[in-house]
Amino acid sequence: FSPGTPSQEIINTVVSKNGATFLAHPLLRNIPWTNFNVINYTGLELWNAGTDVLDGVNPIDIGPALFSTSSLLTGPVEQEFAFYDDLCMKSKTVAIGSMDAHVFYKNGNFSFPSYEDYFNAIRTTVILKSPLSGNAEDDIKAIVSALKYGNCYISNEKYRSSKGFSFMLKK
């Protein structure tokens, strides 16, 4: 897509190709999502580590980040939960969590935050009906389908591993 392509046009194009669309960091103070008139998107980033770190950190607490950005992760703020709850009252809205992986400082082999910190912290785990097949086209379809149905959950792997996590609702 070209810069300036209307959000709804992007969503419509992706949906027409059986894709999934997510509103990126909708409440990030510096660069929030602004077009809330769009429709037919799959969901939103409920927890974006960039939002958490950039919006939720007292500058005095930045010291621990030199050693581990995950020490600054506190989870989605109350405003994000309220926003998500409001969307869910209107229509099915899938929540995901992610890391933007922007490096704020790089010098030689040192980067802050490190990619290891990024990719070992906030995760969206997708729950599939069967294991990945190794066929890229089939696996992409399975992952996108699971995301569309909300068969996923968000975890902070630095806080505690989600391996073996399960959640069931019974009538």
Describe the structure.
The chain has 171 residues and is an alpha/beta fold. It contains five helices and seven strands. It has helices spanning 7-16, 49-56, 78-90, 115-119, 136-148; strands spanning 22-23, 43-48, 94-98, 105-107, 110-112, 122-126, 152-156. The protein has a three-stranded parallel β-sheet with strand order 1-2-3. It has a two-stranded antiparallel ribbon with strand order 4-5. Strands 6-7 form a two-stranded antiparallel ribbon. Strand 4 (105-107) and strand 5 form a beta hairpin. It is globular.
Topology:
Blueprint: H1 7-16, E1 22-23, E2 43-48, H2 49-56, H3 78-90, E3 94-98, E4 105-107, E5 110-112, H4 115-119, E6 122-126, H5 136-148, E7 152-156
Parallel strand pairs: 1-2, 2-3
Antiparallel strand pairs: 4-5, 6-7
Question: What is the compact description of this entry?
Answer:
Helices cover 29% and strands 17% of the residues. With 171 residues, it is of the alpha/beta class. The radius of gyration is 17 Å and the shape is globular.
Characteristic terms for this protein:
single chain; 29% helix; alpha/beta; two-stranded antiparallel ribbon
